[in-house]
Design brief:
- The chain is an alpha+beta fold.
- The chain folds into three domains: 36 residues, no CATH class; 42 residues, no CATH class; 50 residues.
- Strand 1 and strand 2 form a beta hairpin.
- Helix 3 packs across helix 4.
- The radius of gyration is 33 Å and the shape is elongated.
- The protein starts with a strand and ends in a 13-residue tail after the last helix.
């Protein structure tokens, strides 16, 4: 049975009682027969984070192939990541962040390839000389599309 802390506000006595969860709120003070109020206990101070010392990583730690090292708790893992200049994937966002970012970049590259192909087709159509290239640039890259954030040519955010 778990141990709960109680206080009696009538006689100001604090006590601990062993009781089942079902009976937790039905405790009576032995001195004045008033109803006891259950106290909220503070979490235990541990040397690290909850479950880190011998919890999910075990006594022998956990070997991480990506880091190329064994760590024994999350603080060790964070220190290893920091020393190697790595950011844990959980800190970046979702577990699919890399795939989403690559798909987004691929989409921009495809769009840029399409624009380049259109430009090359126009250059070939206009003869391939300097005047043809200028005319192709004017048609494929009009000034209104090259100004501002939106336009015919998408850019990749390198941050």
């Amino acid at each position: 049975m778990p141990n709960y802390s109680y206080i009696c506000y009538t006689c100001k006595v604090q006590s601990d009682r062993l009781c089942k969860w079902d009976n937790k709120h039905e405790q009576i003070c032995e001195m004045c027969d008033s109803t006891l109020v259950a106290l909220v206990t503070a979490p235990a101070k541990t040397s690290g984070r909850w479950g880190d010392n011998t919890g999910k990583h075990g006594v022998n730690g956990k070997y991480d192939r990506g880091l190329g090292a064994t760590y024994y708790n999350s603080m060790d893992r964070e220190a290893l990541c920091k020393s190697k200049g790595l950011i844990p994937l959980e800190d970046v966002g979702s577990s699919h962040w890399v795939e989403d970012r690559m798909a987004s970049d691929r989409s921009i590259l495809d769009q840029q390839d399409k624009v380049l192909q259109t430009y090359n087709n126009k250059v070939a159509e206009y003869g391939g000389d300097e005047r043809g290239k200028i005319k192709a640039i004017e048609e494929v890259f009009p000034a209104k599309d090259c100004l501002g954030e939106s336009g015919n040519v998408g850019t990749m955010d390198l941050n």
